[in-house]
Design a protein that fits this description.
Number of helices: 8
Shape: globular
Largest sheet: 5 strands, parallel
CATH architecture: 3-Layer(aba) Sandwich
Number of domains: 1
CATH class: Alpha Beta
Number of strands: 5
Order of helices and strands: HEHHEHHEHHEHE
CATH superfamily: 5'-nuclease
Length: 150
């Protein structure tokens, strides 16, 4: 697992795409990654970094509370992410679709459909770094473009 200092060094003054699993570590206090996720969101909140979150990731994070019948919490999570300071929630638009398959630094063949759209959301917004623990992301995105907590 990376250290908090490695996270800070990698993310400071950058625009990052935060993947669903990283958000879930924060919202569900998933160990051992919760502290790193909290630090990342603190950096974004205070303006030390800027974040892009795909609307697909928002939906994936909402799914947990919905599965247990807690629609109120799901809506709170949606609103929290949608209005988080120094971040932008990217809708799936034609412009996002145009980015799928267009960046040679990504091995698009190894990605699931939703992951392709999440990554394309980051590319459209010219992020510096993708933050994810997803194995598909790690196999598909060039090493200098991805930060994994593990």
């Amino acid at each position: 697992m990376i250290s908090a200092s490695s996270l800070i060094k990698a993310v400071q003054n950058k625009k990052v795409l935060i993947d669903s699993n990283i958000i879930i570590y924060l919202t569900d206090t998933v160990q051992p990654y919760a502290a790193l996720a909290q630090r990342l969101f603190q950096m974004v909140e205070t303006g030390l970094a800027e974040a892009v979150i795909s609307i697909l990731s928002v939906s994936e994070v909402m799914h947990g509370p919905l599965k247990i019948g807690d629609g109120h919490i799901a809506m709170e999570v949606r609103d929290f992410l949608y209005h988080f300071p120094n971040s932008y929630c990217q809708d799936i638009t034609y412009e996002v679709l145009e980015k799928v398959g267009q960046d040679n630094r990504i091995d698009w063949r190894k990605l699931r459909t939703a992951d392709s759209l999440i990554i394309a959301s980051g590319i459209l917004n010219e992020v510096d770094l993708f933050i994810s623990n997803d194995g598909h992301f790690k196999k598909s995105i060039s090493r200098e473009m991805i930060l994994s907590f593990n």
